[in-house]
Amino acid sequence: MDKFTQEAGSLIVDRLILAIQENKQYLSDIDGAIGDGDHGINMNKGFTLCREALDKQPGDFTYGLKTLGKILMMKIGGSMGPLYGKFFLSIGKALDGVPEIGKEEFGAALNAALDAIHAISPAQVGDKTLMDVLIPAQEAYNGAAGASFAEALDAMDAAALKGRDSTVDMVAKLGRSSRLGERSRGVMDAGSASCYLILHTMADTIKELLGA
Amino acid sequence: MQKIINDPSCVVDEMLQGYVKAHKDLVSTTENERVLKYKACPVEGKVGIVTGGGSGHKPAFIGYIGKNMCDAVAIGELFSSPPAQMFYDAIHEADAGKGVAILYGNYAGDNMNVAMAMEMAEEDGIKVAKVVANDDVPSSPKETREKRRGVAGEILMWKVGGAKAAMGGSLEEVIATAQKAIDNTRSMGVGLSPCTIPEVGHPNFTIEPGYMEVGIGHHGEPGIEVAKLETAEQIAKRMCDVVLPDLPFCAGDEVVVLVSGLGSTPLLEQYIFYDEVEKILTEKGIKIHQALVGNYFTSLEMAGITLTVMKLDDELKECFDLECNSMGLTQYPK
Question: Average pLDDT over chain B, rounded to whole?
């Protein structure tokens, strides 16, 4: 099987929420080194609001993604609200009405999400932000020509992890930690940590749905 | 954690409840519990003034809601930009049909959320425009001034922009005047001790006893150097040496000086510091039109001080002198 259905895909949103809830403290601790230390708190707040909304009104994969995206964008401020809000909303919109999601559909949705983020953020690879995870992950996924859906997800996952770890040795150029200059080196970017967590959870859960 | 609070995760909401009760003569609540507005807002025939930002900077931002000041304010979590929805709702509250000026500080989150809110408001047919304050000199070199963050200079931008709107200015005029205000304004801070976000529970950075962080941001963003704590005279000189040449402020200029404590620095120290600043400016032939000294833009319980100087021209002076009434700033008719 190389596709999953909208109905089955709701598990991905459930797992994303769980992953953020379970890693609330971990994300705040990373953020605390060069940021406010509230990244985990804010992410958890948004994802938990989404859990409550989905418990009241459950739905399929794209419904869940759009609910998550809207809540993050409208209710969670900071930079992460709009960035992740656009990310999930764009994936949800791109896959809306697609009954079965395969490698091509997911790739197109990922590209739409990146386009949406580029439209609101000037961040590029090397700026020590979540884009250090997202951009290489997208490239790895798109570059996995001839590979199966599961293999492309593995490539995305591996690139995301590498991207996350690459932020440790970077000097922040955007966002609040950019004011630290050299002093931001040696610490992982909190946004890249949550971004890896999200992509990794997506890849893992999709593979589970594919039976891979 | 030495704090007078209830639930650490509810400090913003509980603060707002108290604020609204205490200042019911000035502000009212709106449908969005994170948007407060001036009681008389929307003011007919006037461009609306909206601002917003993270909480923890009292009196900023809600303290500058009032007559001839800000009309509606979006209120974020501690040190975290309000989401787009709040800015959008604030724009709607402030709109009296003449357009809305969004005057806020340069932070990545605020930039994104304001941009989305403006896009949504435009779709509703509301005329919107923005000015992004970037008065904090140490946060970026002069060549990349657009990267500097907005700090206490925002208050002068609201004062002047609010006055221009009250005088009947069009949206374009309000924006141009507010932009001129911030273009003529430079700021800098020093921090002596950190602050604690209640929900985080520990200080967000450290400053060793006997030291100060020069050029600190008002969320504790580290500055340009950590130096041995100096006397008020030396600190004033150090800050003037950074702030004054940047515009530059020259002999013959007329200025407004705003000295703000960062939270736990007593007014006593702030006045000692102001005295030193006044001596330096006077010696340089810079005339102080009016001084503001107090806790105008804070950073929770951080110890430290900020210095802001705005160069006046006839228009800025007229706008600055216009009477206004808000919890954070009151200007009596001259």
Answer: 96
Is the confidence at residue A180, as pLDDT, over 90? no
Q: Do A38 and B109 touch (CB under 8 A)?
A: no
Asked if A176 lies within 8 A of B219 by C-beta distance, the reply is yes
A32 touches chain B (CB under 8 A): yes
pLDDT recorded at residue B266: 98
What contacts B243, CB < 8 A, 6 or more positions away? B137, B186, B187, B188, B249, B307, B309
The answer to whether residue B219 is catalytic is yes
Nearest to B200 among A32, A76, A82 (CB): A32
- Catalytic residue check, B92: no
Distance of CA B81 to the CA centre of its chain: 14
Question: What percent of chain A stands above pLDDT 90?
Answer: 77
CA distance B330 to B68: 10
- The DSSP 8-state label assigned to residue A122 in this structure reads -
Using CA coordinates, name the residue in chain B closest to A175.
Answer: B108
List all residues 6 or more positions away from B231 whose beta carbon is below 8 Å from its beta carbon: none
A137-166 per-position pLDDT tens digit: 999 999 998 999 999 999 999 999 999 999
Cβ burial A107-120 (10 Å sphere, 16+ → b, else e): bbbbbbbbebbeeb
Which tens digit of pLDDT belongs to each residue from B78-132? 999 999 999 999 999 999 999 999 999 999 899 999 999 999 999 999 999 999 9
Contact B107 A28 (CB under 8 A): no
The answer to whether the Cβ–Cβ distance between B222 and A77 falls below 8 Å is no
Q: Do the beta carbons of residue B89 and residue B126 sit within 8 Å?
A: no
Instruction: Give CA–CA dist A59/B320, Å, rounded.
Output: 55
The phi and psi torsions of B225 (rounded to 5 degrees) equal -160, 155
From the candidates B23, B57, B92, B218, which is the catalytic residue? Answer: B57
CA distance A144 to chain B (A): 33
| Amino acid identity at B332 | Y
Structural tokens at position A166: 């690459």
ipTM above 0.85, yes or no: no
Look up the pTM and report it. 0.89
Does the beta carbon of A176 lie under 8 angstroms from any beta carbon of chain B? yes
Strand positions, DSSP E, B197-300: 211-214, 225-228, 254-261, 287-294
Q: How many residues does chain B have?
A: 334
pLDDT digits (tens, 9 = 90+) for B22-51: 999 999 999 999 999 999 999 999 999 999
